[in-house]
């Protein structure tokens, strides 16, 4: 039985497995298994990956129905990795480890990023449908500025609320092993998702979304209501 102090539990177990295989000679009928937190973390990672894939599939179908075109559904899903850049960077600086707690944080950040993308894209379509604005750079810039405050408020409210948990990194603090990794990801994620999203989402919409936008408006999609 060991109580590891290393943050990267998976690599530690890998070294232990190599050492046991090289130095321990077992009699016939015996085997060595590694149990405890390592197994729980591995099983939880598999379940998160399985259910995460199912959730992305359902989300894609809902977005296609909402926008009446697969282009914007794909754009929203592709915008999610932008949110993970900051979360990964901050996790590397503060934790240097990906755990179940950080995976939970990434799920929360992905939801915030998807919500911001949907809000921006739906406002572009709303302006085109109800205000009669043609698809143009001026329209995209104006609609983006109109949604700047809600997007920033979401990121600031999410990040500032968790800053105390990020700063509470003293060893032995109650709940630190769970709350601190989650907070680190959720604080770092919106920092990049907001900045990159406000630049990339409008740029991709303007560069490649003309036909999809006109089709969505023509079909009277719920996104343009």
List the main descriptive attributes of the protein structure presented here.
8 helices; 0% strand; elongated; 225 residues; single chain
Which structural class fits the helix and strand makeup? Answer: mainly alpha
Mean pLDDT comes to: 84
Q: What's the total helix number?
A: 8
Number of strands: 0
Biggest beta sheet attributes = none
Order of helices and strands: HHHHHHHH
**Low-confidence spans:** none
Strand content: under 5%
- First-last Cα distance: 60 Å
Radius of gyration: 23 Å
Quick one: overall form?
Answer: elongated
Give helix % range. Answer: over 70%
Describe this structure in words.
There is one protein chain. This protein is mainly α and 225 residues long. 77% of the residues lie in helices and 0% in strands. It is built from eight helices and no strands. It has helices at residues 9-23, 37-67, 70-94, 100-130, 137-146, 148-167, 176-208, 210-218. Helix 4 packs parallel to helix 7 (176-208), helix 5 packs antiparallel against helix 7 (176-208) and helix 6 packs antiparallel against helix 7. The longest helix has 33 residues, at 176-208. The protein is elongated and about 80 Å long.
Itemize the secondary structure elements and their pairings:
Blueprint: H1 9-23, H2 37-67, H3 70-94, H4 100-130, H5 137-146, H6 148-167, H7 176-208, H8 210-218
Question: How would you sum up this structure in a few lines?
Answer:
This protein is mainly α and 225 residues long. It has helices at residues 9-23, 37-67, 70-94, 100-130, 137-146, 148-167, 176-208, 210-218. The protein is elongated, with a radius of gyration of 23 Å.
